[in-house]
Amino acid sequence: MTRLLEGKASAAAIRDDTAAAAHRLRDAGVVPSLALVLATADESAAWYTRAIARAGEKVGVEVWIERLADDASADEIRSALRKLSAGPSVHGIILQAPLPPGVDGVEVAADIAPEKDVDGANPLSLGRLTAGLPAFAPATAAAVMRLLDDQGVALSGRHAVVVGRSLVVGKPVAMLLLARNATVTICHSRTVDLPTVTSQADVLVAAVGRPRMLGAEHVKPGAVVIDVGTTPDDDGTLVGDVDADAVMGRAEAVTPVPGGVGPVTTALLLHSTVAAASALQDAWRARGAPGPRVSWGPTARAP
Ligand code: NAP
């Protein structure tokens, strides 16, 4: 019998924590605030930013959208990010994809202050995460780990296979799994004989964006399968990378799409914004006096 690893309960617990911490900050005169930088007319990006704004309202995080022109240049985007990074009332910054043609997301994200980089987009954040230093992980990667932890999935010494090597999901997930002492394999579009590799996984993370590309032959009996993929089908319904029907009865557990990683990701973005607001507030208080350094969030250091 395959368990469905739904994200609902994890997301609700994160929201409760976030709301309580946001409340404490507001009582101390700080309104935790998240700026979403949008330079696209893409409908799903607009939908996503509205969803974050609604979710923020429920937990006491102010979300505002910094709308740039659809054809904003890299310099214009960098300048907006620098301004928000320096703004004392901004605690978290997200640069929403897609970006205008010709703009390199990784390069421009280098202008997000690391202590406000709640979606781990600045390459410095991934570098620090890889080095085991405090940094915000991309929220989706952190959501995968949170789901695994909340479901009590053991990682140490187990074989984790990640399909996908993007900077937003595949690579950071692999680093976080490695930090938890999993033996990690990363697959990508040039991997030869994918089913042979993935079917060795105790924990399989799919982050490709190809609807139902992983079937029974890709999954080891008893594996835990985390499906990050979200591709809208013709009627707008989100479809995962895993053919859930095919792996039912074979996998030990699988996340649904939608309703698995997605809700946890959104909840963690707001949680990280509150953590950033709190760390910035502490740093402000300690300014001028020797005190603790700002901690930016989860580390990838092995326990
Ligand atoms: P991406 O940047 O397009 O990366 C996709 C990765 O999949 C690449 O590394 C690519 O390999 C690999 N790939 C493509 N075809 C493959 C194949 N046939 N076999 C093995 N690997 C293959 O996508 P992404 O941004 O990481 O997103 C991945 C999926 O996650 C998308 O569906 C996205 O919508 C979803 N997503 C979900 C959330 C959430 O909160 N649930 C958040 C972010 C993203 P190469 O590197 O060789 O090209």
Number of domains: 2
State the total count of DSSP E strands: 11
Question: What fraction of residues sit in β-strands?
Answer: 5-15%
CATH superfamily of the largest domain: Leucine Dehydrogenase, chain A, domain 1
- Just give the CATH class of the largest domain: Alpha Beta
Which second-level CATH architecture of the largest domain applies?
A: 3-Layer(aba) Sandwich
**Helical percentage:** 25-40%
Largest beta sheet: strand ordering: 1-11-8-7-5-6
Distance between the termini: 32 Å
How do the helices and strands line up, and which of them pair or pack?
Layout: E1 3-4, H1 8-27, E2 33-38, H2 43-59, E3 62-67, H3 74-86, E4 92-95, H4 105-109, H5 123-130, H6 139-150, E5 159-163, H7 170-179, E6 183-187, H8 194-198, E7 203-206, E8 224-227, E9 231-232, E10 238-239, H9 244-247, E11 253-254, H10 261-286
Parallel strand pairs: 1-11, 2-3, 2-4, 5-6, 5-7, 7-8, 8-11
Antiparallel strand pairs: 9-10
Helix pairs in contact: 1-10, 6-7, 6-10
The protein binds NADP nicotinamide-adenine-dinucleotide phosphate (NAP).
Describe the protein in words.
The protein is 40% helix and 14% strand. It is of the alpha/beta class and 303 residues long. It folds into 2 domains: 29-113 and 264-303, Rossmann fold (3-Layer(aba) Sandwich), CATH 3.40.50.10860; 139-259, Rossmann fold. The strands form 3 sheets. It has a 6-stranded parallel beta sheet. Strand 9 and strand 10 form a beta hairpin. It is globular, with a radius of gyration of 19 Å. Mean pLDDT is 94; it is low at 289-295. NADP nicotinamide-adenine-dinucleotide phosphate (NAP) binds at residues 140, 163-166, 168-170, 187-191, 194, 207-210, 228-231, 261-262, 265.
